[in-house]
Amino acid sequence: MHRRRWLTALVVLPLLLLVLLKGGRLGLVLVILAVSALAQWEFLGMFRPEAPKFQRLKSILLGSLLLLSFCTAYPYSDTICYPGGLLPCTPTAVLFILFWCTFFLFLFYLLSYGHIEQLAQDLAVNVLGLIYLPFLLGHFIWLRYLPQGEMWVLWLLIVIFAGDTGAFYVGQALGKSKLYPAVSPGKTWAGAVGGVILALVAGLLAGKWLLPEVNLRPLGVLALVLALVGLLGDLFESMLKRQTQVKDASQLLPGHGGMLDRLDSLLFAAPAVLYARLFILGG
Questions:
Q1: Count of domains in the chain?
Q2: How many CB atoms lie within 10 A of CB 221?
Q3: Which of 13, 100, 116, 200 has the CA that lies 20 to 30 A from 224?
Q4: Radius of gyration, CA atoms only, the chain
Q5: Which residues of the chain have pLDDT under 50?
Q6: Which residues in 92-115 are b (16+ Cβ under 10 Å) and which e?
Q7: Can you give the chain as a three-state secondary structure string?
Q8: Separation CA 92–CA 82 (nearest Å)
Q9: What percent of the chain lies above the pLDDT cut of 70?
């Protein structure tokens, strides 16, 4: 398993770096669209494996539309970006699209009454999937659009991946006391502490290299916050898998599980970094 884990990382990480540093904003948006679609497919398949595949496709299309709204909405600008001024470049545009996506889902299930078993559960899963994946992933687009956005996204990825790696190996080597066995039997207190420490070290070192103009003290605090947020994201996805009684979201990434298994720690991290930049560090 360890060998497959590292081989997958050696293939995926260089491609990710290439897109992030050389692909521009468009490259990142295309990658996030693909990642979100795969993760939504896994998420919906976990909860509703018997549902017709076209029902997953409609949710993925709505999720893609929601993600694209982040490309035309800047969290700090009130300029007009659509021809004719149809929508302002503010979070209002994202909320506008989120409302209509949710409205469409409600309308779809209203018209499907009597034709879909467990209709309320199916509707709830689709709405949760829309917010949990495309909406949270869209914050990566906003973060990338900020000044030095590619460096901040890279710094975030380094901190989260370092925390995940530290938690995995320290937990295997020293972990005895379980962290939250009802949700994730494999996680230990030692692994959690190891992940936080490695995330802090990685955040300081990467910050000095990638973001030399930012004071290391707030970066260190933000790295600690990300380590905790990443852990909570991991536990949240573990809770979802326990609820659906699956070990991994899929086998898409050998040694890592599915796309959703790789995203779990990142989903809440991007909003945390974005809003820290805007309201604490300055955008």
A1: 1
A2: 14
A3: 13
A4: 19
A5: 78-88
A6: ebbebbbeebbeebeebbeeeeee
A7: CHHHHHHHHHHHHHHHHHHHHHCHHHHHHHHHHHHHHHHHHHHHHHHCCCCCHHHHHHHHHHHHHHHHHHHCCCCCCCCECCCCCCCECCHHHHHHHHHHHHHHHHHHHHHCCCCCCCHHHHHHHHHHHHHHHHHHHHHHHHHHHCCCHHHHHHHHHHHHHHHHHHHHHHHHHHCCCEEECCCEEEEEHHHHHHHHHHHHHHHHHHHHHHCCCCCHHHHHHHHHHHHHHHHHHHHHHHHHHHHHCCCCCCCCECCCECHHHHHCCCCCHHHHHHHHHHHHHHC
A8: 13
A9: 92
Model pLDDT for residues 107-149, shown as the tens digit of each residue: 999 998 888 888 898 999 999 999 999 999 999 999 998 889 9
Q: Note whether 218 and 280 are within 8 A (CB).
A: yes
> Quick one: pLDDT at residue 25?
86
Q: Which two structure tokens, joined as six digits, stand for 100?
A: 């209509």
Distance CA 194, CA 239 (A): 22
The span from the CA of 19 to the CA of 33, in Å, is: 13
Listed in sequence order, the residues at least 6 apart from 106 whose beta carbon sits closer than 8 Å to its beta carbon are: 123
Domain, as residue range, for 215:
2-282
Measured from the Cβ of residue 226, the count of other Cβ atoms closer than 10 Å reads: 30
